[in-house]
Amino acid sequence: MSLNEEVELLRNIPLFAKIEPSKLKLLAFTSERLIYQDDQVLVHQGDMGDAAFIIIDGTASVTIDTDAGEIEVAIMGKGDVVGEIAILCDVPRTATVKASSKLTVLKITKELFFRLVNEFPQISIEIMRELAARLERTNAQLRGALSRGSGS
Amino acid sequence: MSLNEEVELLRNIPLFAKIEPSKLKLLAFTSERLIYQDDQVLVHQGDMGDAAFIIIDGTASVTIDTDAGEIEVAIMGKGDVVGEIAILCDVPRTATVKASSKLTVLKITKELFFRLVNEFPQISIEIMRELAARLERTNAQLRGALSRGSGS
After folding, report:
1. Percent of chain B as helix, strand, coil, to the nearest 5
2. CATH number for the segment(s) B3-149
3. Using beta carbons and an 8 Å cutoff, which residues of A are at the interface with B?
4. What are the residue ranges spanned by the domains of chain B?
5. Whole-structure pTM value
6. Over the stretch A98-108, which tens digit does the pLDDT of each residue have?
């Protein structure tokens, strides 16, 4: 893939839509692109992690291990960011992320992540929105689980 | 309280620790300070909201309504931000926030919030960290609730 094609691809990711092409070239140069096959694991719940991933193509399944077994809490697709909690909070991975199709991701190291959010407020806002939306969904799941628990 | 005292107070909030005093003066001018008595409600789950709150002094209880009744999910204190999910995601308030002591907060309108995160990357990073930490805690509560649910 040519550099221009890479930049075009990055521009189609909402997170990067407002960043100028010259900066996106730099991003394409400094980040690593990885391809996972269906069912391959990107991150394991409990492991330490120093990178986040932006999905360029394909889908990934996010699961958490409970005493009741593995529960899928989200399906992520193109443009979604996964794995940023561990680099924001210095905690072990809070969930397992597994490719649920052939999956192409951009690997964003911790250092690059903080450079990006420092330089591009728009990226921060999108990530805050995503975290807030995820928190809202998780709260809804928790409300549901607690309500069911009381009824059983 | 003098303006200098206000600025000193804001500097003690981790969210603002790295912002220059001249900018903090502007913040002290443009944001509204509110005082709640113990048990007064700041935001009601389900209401629409267009402001976040930064706790300057005192504590607040965050509760969610479930079929099993009201459940306290967090206690917030000095320096904590509450109510930002509704302005980030344009969704109704996801929880009720109530003063659990005499409580002083800075009311940050949606417009001011986005101005702050655009201008000060450090604020974005702190808010992302807080959202990520809260998501991690909620995930842990969900794991617990789902595990208990399976055992009952």
Report:
1. 45, 30, 25
2. 2.60.120.10
3. 64-69, 71, 73, 84-85, 88-89, 91, 94-95, 114, 117-119, 121, 124-125, 127-129, 131-136, 138-143, 145-152
4. 3-149
5. 0.81
6. 999 999 999 99
